[in-house]
Amino acid sequence: MRIACLQLKPQLGDVAHNLKRAEAIIARAAPVDLDLLVLPEMAFSGYYFNSLQEISFHLEPTAAGPSTVWARSVARRLKCFVCVGYPECTATSPNSPIGIQRYNSCVLVNPQGNVVTNYRKHFLFSIDETWAEEGKEGFFAGEVPGIGVMAMGICMDLNPYKFLAPFDKYEFANHVIDSGAELVVLPMAWLTAQSAHSPIENALVPEADTLAYWVQRLQPLIDRGHKSGREITVVISNRVGIDGGCCFAGTSAILGFSKGNVKVYGCVGRATEDLLIADVPGPMSAKPCRHRTLTR
Question: What positions does the domain CN hydrolase occupy (predicted)?
């Protein structure tokens, strides 16, 4: 299975520019025979909006806005699955008692350009809470034809709930194990501890502390492994650059987890825009699509 992560430096609120940057990175890499392409969290809108008012113009209708249109086009062109994060606004009836709802979401599109699933971030980071609601369905897990059993989360989903749950509860990692997933997709807008005002040194070098923390948060995959003994592939697509005075960590990675072992199939630098491509064990089993979710 050939997987790619598109590490992008989006400009906050400039969707047209960000779409062009993504296309330029793909064109430069000229990938062939991809099975899956993963982009960061809120890849084309940018991430660090401080209020509903700030983000309102950039909200996209459920699996129907610019991010999904782009994903469908690229999926058909490259003949691969595409996953991209975006800020979602539900299209509800004017008579609905619930009204409009907003989520930090990601959409998965198949090679035919059809939407497979729309996942809503379950654990919100503090900045998400200024405009978004928690996805109530729990973390995603499902059988995706052409991929097999897949789990999905977004950024903060990898952390303890609200940073208040016990660290060793490992909510998302245990969800992966319990679901039987062999492929895990994590769009990210993960911050670095580095000051946004300090020069970025060793831009081409991955941020070791960030990568080590991600692996630590997936510890149950090392302790228990997949029930079949197969390797679990984890795809982490992060972004780079600065939003709202905050600096992002980059370090997008494609990892393989088995009992007692972690492989790094590929990892990019802390401040580079690039398309990371790696071949991992596969193909995954293709079964009828039956989606389910697990709650915390």
Answer: 1-282
pLDDT tens, position by position, 215-237: 999 999 999 999 999 999 999 99
Q: State the fold for domain 2-294.
A: Nitrilase/N-carbamoyl-D-aminoacid amidohydrolase (3.60.110)
Domain boundaries, the chain: 2-294
Contacts of 40 (CB under 8 A, 6+ apart): 6, 7, 8, 10, 85, 187, 188, 189, 237, 238, 239, 252
CA diameter of the chain: 55
Cross-strand bridge partners of residue 89 = 61, 102
Question: Which residues, 6 or more positions from 222, have their beta carbon under 8 angstroms from its beta carbon?
Answer: 215, 257, 259, 260, 261, 262
Which pLDDT value is given to residue 275? 98
CA distance 43 to 11: 10
The vertex-290 CA angle with 284 and 295, nearest 5°, equals 100
CA-to-CA separations, 31 to 80, 187, 214, 236, in angstroms, rounded: 11, 20, 27, 18
Q: Does this model's pTM top 0.90? A: yes
Query: What's the pLDDT tens digit per position in 74-88?
Result: 999 999 999 999 999
Instruction: Give the per-residue pLDDT at 234.
Output: 98
Residue for token pair 């062109």: 77
Place of tokens 């369905």: 137
Q: What is the 3-state secondary structure (H, E, C) of 73-140?
A: HHHHHHCCEEEEEEEEECCCCCCCCCCCCEEEEEEEECCCCCEEEEEECCCCCCCHHHCCCCCCCCEE
Q: Is 50 exceeded by the pLDDT of residue 287? A: no
At 224, the amino acid letter reads R
Give me Rg for the CA atoms of the chain: 18
Tell me how far apart the alpha carbons of residues 128 and 239 are, in angstroms, rounded to a whole number.
16
